[in-house]
Amino acid sequence: MGKILGNRVTIRGSGFFVPARVVTNEELSRTLDTTDTWIQERTGIRERRVAAEDENTSDLAFRAAQAALENAGVAPCDVDMIIVATNSPDTLFPGVAPRVQDMLGATRAGACDVQSGCTGSVYALAMGIAGVSSGLWKNVVVIGAEIISRIVDWSDRKTSVLFGDGSGALVLGEGDEGQGRFVSVDLKSDGSKHDFIVLPAGMTAMPASEETVKKGLHCVFMKGNDVFRFANKVLPDFLRSFLAEADIGPKDIQWWLLHQANMRIIESILSKLDVSPDKAIVNLSRYGNTSAASIFIALAEFLRNQSFAQGDRIVLSAFGAGMTYGAILYEA
């Protein structure tokens, strides 16, 4: 675990954006061998958002960043760095972040993408925190943005029912005494399980060809049961140790914001930590798994409707392809 030293880093603003189109379980059941009941019982998802044909990941990221900057009262010209967590960029290069930097008119800002599966949210946030804490940057926009709908096989009920599109953003900056602060970060990976979630074709290991297209190898493949077992086995002990290093326990946490992947996973992790599900921030049923955007969307939506009480402790944690995982502790 890394305790955050140096400057106090706080959340100055938040925002999110989701596409207008809603795809319900009932709609999916018309073309898949599934039902609304089957999907809800196994995932907790009722509906998800799907981007329009003329929307790109950079468009979604821009809208979330714009909302977060407005919420923070920070002008684009005062942004020092833009970091975008995504697994579904417009193009591999240029990245999404430079496009957003231009769209915002953030002429002073650097920009880069982070790709670390669904955990990209936590990894990107850790980078932003480190930059502000060290004094390297004063204002950082961290974004999670995905259009996963374009890289799933919509005839495969094992994956297509899970994912949705959307974006969320936070503005990080130096905080004064009495303001919220990030306390600690821990980032992990178990590369021996790199084959649990993959997008096989399109890069150097398997360049695009007529055969890869015919075989549908440009879509997400997931060993669902293995991912489920990994999260349930690894995350509870990891989170318990993460908090112990900060000399606190699960019962000292007022809010839990876990990756919005599957309601059964969220409930199982909390149960093993002996934490009430009432302490979880969850919007999975309405948006599905938005990958690297899920934590940012859930947090921004929560903060739009209510606020943390001073002194509240919040754990943000995710897991994803790699297999990567991590956690961040924030004190309001």
What keyword list fits this structure?
single chain; 332 residues; alpha+beta; Peroxisomal Thiolase, Chain A, domain 1; 5-stranded mixed β-sheet
Which structural category do the helix and sheet elements fall into?
alpha+beta
Q: Provide the spatial order of strands within the biggest beta sheet.
A: 1-9-14-13-12
Q: Which percent range fits the helix content?
A: 25-40%
The CATH superfamily is identified as Thiolase/Chalcone synthase
Identify the CATH architecture. Answer: 3-Layer(aba) Sandwich
The count of strands amounts to 14
Overall tally of structural domains: 1
Beta fraction: 15-25%
Q: For the residues shown, what is the average pLDDT? A: 97
CATH topology term: Peroxisomal Thiolase, Chain A, domain 1
**What is the H/E string?**
EEEHHEHEHEHEHEEEHEHEHHHEE
- Which CATH class? Alpha Beta
Overall 3D geometry?
globular
Q: Give a quick account of the main beta sheet: strands, pairing sense, barrel closure.
A: 5 strands, mixed
Q: Note the gap between the termini.
A: 20 Å
Number of helices: 11
Low-confidence stretches: none
